[in-house]
Design the sequence.
């Protein structure tokens, strides 16, 4: 595994570089919006990647609730951390596109509002994990993650069932996209997914080391002779 990590890292860097070139140069220019449309090659893949990570968090949380598996708890924590980062990218790149196209930075339509709520739920999840010292913290966080996961399909399908300013889905739901643009979009999604996996992999190893150290310190403290403190 230690040898595979740098190899996968190099391949991911190459893929990200190629995806960047395709997004900025290789993809055709959209006729109506012009070059500002190119931000969608980061906005949409970031959203899809965040949804996948939050789904992983949901599954891992269910496993932890059922089996109290520490590995499942670590997977849930790591996927939530990286998912919040990608969801933040969505909330930042969206207004950057909206300002020149809609003339406003933000509007409280269903898709934007529900995405913000989703982000706040998982931010609360991370704050709970970070600042709560209770032994029940993983259990409470897992329950909160299950609640947050219910928001994911709502965010995705919100533009299917509600009237919003947000563009229609690029695939299905009445939307359409040039095949060349779709090709670039999928390449960027693959690149973002590989990068997310790389970060999760690294973060998981770090979390495991940290927990092993904390467990060793706790065992050492329990085994310490009380008489040596006098």
Sequence:
């Amino acid at each position: 595994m230690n040898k595979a990590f740098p190899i996968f890292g190099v391949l991911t860097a190459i893929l990200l570089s190629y995806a960047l070139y395709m997004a900025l140069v290789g993809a055709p220019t959209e006729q109506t919006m012009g070059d500002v449309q190119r931000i969608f090659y980061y906005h949409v893949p970031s959203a899809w990647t965040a949804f996948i990570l939050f789904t992983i968090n949901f599954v891992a949380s269910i496993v932890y609730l059922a089996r109290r598996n520490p590995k499942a708890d670590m997977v849930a924590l790591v996927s939530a951390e990286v998912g919040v980062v990608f969801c933040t990218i969505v909330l930042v790149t969206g207004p950057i596109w909206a300002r020149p196209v809609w003339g406003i930075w933000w509007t409280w339509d269903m898709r934007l509002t529900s995405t913000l709520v989703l982000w706040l739920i998982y931010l609360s999840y991370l704050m709970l994990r970070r600042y709560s010292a209770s032994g029940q913290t993983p259990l409470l966080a897992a329950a909160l993650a299950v609640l947050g996961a219910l928001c994911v399909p709502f965010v995705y399908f919100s533009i299917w069932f509600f009237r919003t300013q947000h563009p229609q889905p690029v695939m299905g739901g009445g939307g359409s996209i040039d095949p060349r643009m779709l090709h670039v979009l999928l390449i960027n999604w693959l690149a973002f997914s590989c990068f997310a996996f790389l970060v999760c992999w690294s973060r998981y190893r770090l979390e495991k080391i940290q927990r092993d150290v904390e467990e060793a310190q706790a065992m050492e403290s329990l085994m310490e002779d009380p008489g040596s403190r006098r």
Remarks:
- The mean pLDDT is 88.
